């Protein structure tokens, strides 16, 4: 009685949640809403869903199929299909290594912001005072407090890429923490990852729901949502729209990094991954759309606040320049008063013209931001204007953290799984193997099973064909290296 | 005689009018936004409120220069519906001489908080055009608060990792002990040991059913 050398997910739910946790990441929150806005709002859903059908689901299905059938990481799985395809597996592992190295930095930023949310006044709510305490810092005045906090206090960005800014201790500590937590999550391989994904997959939805409710009740939120959903169909004629839709599907589902192969390799042999593939792809796209509603509600709120602040500044400028009583101009009649004053005091008004800002709600709404600018600057700006901003801030950055951590788990598993097929990294996971002999024995059984099961498999045709051709040729003794 | 009396009576106000004028060299423009600051509880700007303002400035000047300033030393002019006006400060010794702009500025900056409170306003709503506010020094706790949260989190995570590693080691040791105990009962091991003692193990009296299966 040989013990099963390979770990398994404790239940198919864990596998599905792991895939969801991996696929639903930061891209759903900060890339999809931007693309939606850039490519005509509701109209973007057409190329997006079409690409999901044409490339997303088939490739997702393919990766799960390979992983589950071969029960190996990406290198082993692709090599088992054909030795010439081994490079594909290797390339995906190398890509995952690069990805892991920089992805955790975003988690480090999320930690930084999360820790700084535990203060009575959020540090990005107001500019810090300058050295002689006469006003806010000059750098902060020119930009905004949120931008200052991100670029100066978080990153301490250097003027150009040639100049090295040195190590920022705060960031270094948060980065260390991000890696330590990642290690904790994968320390026992699938056993520990399987438990963690229950939380990392579901918590973001809780926060998104809370934010949806909060966002919809914010002042001016509907402006943003309306703006997003009004489709501009002429964008569909632009090939960039289709390219971006295809790219977004590809990266959002995390295809080609080897993570899905790795996750599926821990499945039970007869797991129904066909249904799971469709479920996960739909959940991923659904989350993108859900998150973009939330984002646009927040956009609308921020744009409305900025617009009203602009109007208020204009109002004060007019009051001060023309020495009118305070209640003669309100936010509502700023534009009429501008007209009136222009006609009544043209020369005085002309002097003001360079100080007068152009307040336009459409312009505010159309400033589309993506990536870190959206997540760390625009969102924190919106949060600081909400009542009880510390709570919202903590919730939001914890959600970003969960999204990022979930994706990291997939990326790390993509690296450790193929490596573990070659060597035993006992420090990273709990070894469940009883020696190499058992493993060899098992591989022989497994391959013979594959051979008999092949005509009945639901794999895509080309796997079927190449398996038949190549597996029969390779003697079982060669199994050691690449099984 | 009467003319001279009238002349001397009018002189201060005439002098005042000449000393205080918009864009005066030693004067400051003040702008109040009472309705913005107080909303419904806003008070009407009238002679009495102006008197209070003059008294506040007189206090600030006295406090800073350590001279006795009177309300009549603070001259206010050019009031607008905005509630903005210009004021100048005359020296208590010589009402026809103005106190320098820098001294006034320093005095106002030193007692800014007090003046704000007297008029129920703040730095933004009581504007002295050209005078920079003195903002409160930022409160810096001994340990930044984020470091405390960070310490807690990394402590918990570190403890978790140590716990998991230790439990792995403990489990491995336990398994090894179990395997060792099993081997003790193993017939083969027993046979080996007996062979090592230069004897032959007689299997007919062994308890295992290996050789006699029905």
Automatic annotation (TrEMBL), chain A:
The chain crosses the membrane at residues 12-32, 44-62, 83-105, 165-186, 198-222, 242-266, 278-299, 394-417. SUPFAM superfamilies: SNF-like (SSF161070). Pfam families: SNF. The keyword Cell wall biogenesis/degradation does not apply. Its main location: membrane. GO terms for cellular component: apical plasma membrane. InterPro entries: Na/ntran_symport, Neutral_aa_SLC6, SNS_sf. GO terms for molecular function: L-proline transmembrane transporter activity; metal ion binding; proline:sodium symporter activity. It is a multi-pass membrane protein. It is found in: Membrane. Na(+) binds at residues 23-24, 28, 252, 284, 403, 407. PROSITE patterns: NA_NEUROTRAN_SYMP_1, NA_NEUROTRAN_SYMP_2, NA_NEUROTRAN_SYMP_3. One of its GO terms (biological process) is L-proline import across plasma membrane. Keywords: Glycoprotein, Membrane, Metal-binding, Sodium, Symport, Transmembrane, Transmembrane helix, Transport. Belongs to the sodium:neurotransmitter symporter (SNF) (TC 2.A.22) family. PANTHER family: SODIUM- AND CHLORIDE-DEPENDENT TRANSPORTER XTRP3 (PTHR11616:SF44), SODIUM/CHLORIDE DEPENDENT TRANSPORTER (PTHR11616). This is Transporter.
From TrEMBL, chain B:
Keywords: Cell membrane, Glycoprotein, Membrane, Phosphoprotein, Signal, Transmembrane, Transmembrane helix. It is a single-pass type I membrane protein. The chain crosses the membrane at residues 146-166. Residues 175-214 are annotated as: Disordered. It is found in: Cell membrane. GO terms for biological process: positive regulation of amino acid transport. Residues 1-16 form the signal peptide. Residues 24-214 form the Collectrin-like domain. The keyword Manganese does not apply. InterPro entries: Collectrin (IPR042944), Collectrin_dom (IPR031588). Residues 179-188 have a biased composition (Acidic residues). It holds the Pfam family Collectrin. GO terms for cellular component: extracellular exosome; plasma membrane. PANTHER family: COLLECTRIN (PTHR46884:SF1). This is Collectrin-like domain-containing protein. It comes from Poecilia mexicana.
